[in-house]
Amino acid sequence: MNNLKIIAVIVLFSVCAFSPAMGKGLGKSEDIEFKSDYDQTMQRYILRLPEDFNNCTNHDLLIALHGHGSDRLQFAEANRPQCVAPRDVAGDRNMIFAAPDYRAKTSWMGPAAEADVVQIIKEFKAHYKIDRVFLCGGSMGGSSALTFAVLHPDMIAGVAAMNPMANHLEYEGFQDAIAQSFGGTKKDIPGEYKKRSAEYWPEKFNFPVGISVGGKDTIVPPDSAVRLAGVLQKLGKEVCLVNRPEMGHDTSYNDTRQILEFVIDKANKGNFQCHPSQ
Known about the structure:
Layout: H1 3-17, E1 30-35, E2 42-48, E3 59-65, H2 73-77, H3 81-92, E4 96-100, H4 111-127, E5 130-138, H5 140-151, E6 158-162, H6 175-182, H7 190-195, E7 209-214, H8 223-234, E8 239-244, H9 253-267
Parallel strand pairs: 3-4, 3-5, 5-6, 6-7, 7-8
Antiparallel strand pairs: 1-2, 2-4
Helix pairs in contact: 3-9
């Protein structure tokens, strides 16, 4: 090995060895376009790397899924508290942050959206040193995060869902959009709706789960998510349910942060406790 190569190896080792353990925040958004393997269409996601990003260092990946009628920019840029909290957690913990369109604006984690998220995770693992993948989302995004988690439990280390539902067979909202996403109505393809209903597959949750709901939520009623959390607790799963009877279709910054930190710390085998009354 010549002297130039020796110097290059030493410099690379030094950069990798002295990378900071904790992050200082996230860098600017990068709008990424990719060709979907599912149908060859061009799709997009927002990428935000840690400010002190170094690809010699292993990172966890946090994927945030937007709500109905929105797109990748919601969790990547919006000032809504439940959107700010995941970015803050990712920045504090030196995580890579991604917010996909997943077939915006009416995604609902149908087959195309599911395939896109699988592809994004695989591409991240091919290009970065990814330790674990965590999912979060609000409303449609929370419901979709639960759906993806039961469809691909081997790809996920934890999931945090804000104001989700967990049973497509009983849910009556946004049926035109869901039918388009799933490829038919619940009457025509009930098996597809059951397949994408997390409540029917509690045994798949072999990772920590955080759920926040509002008792006055009429857009995505909390009943199925509360039932899912109850079953998971009975099965001895790691679950944090924050149920606010006075709240509607929203989750506060603190509650969002709590369920996310619960999920991440439990995945770390830590002792972070769920405190729904905070």
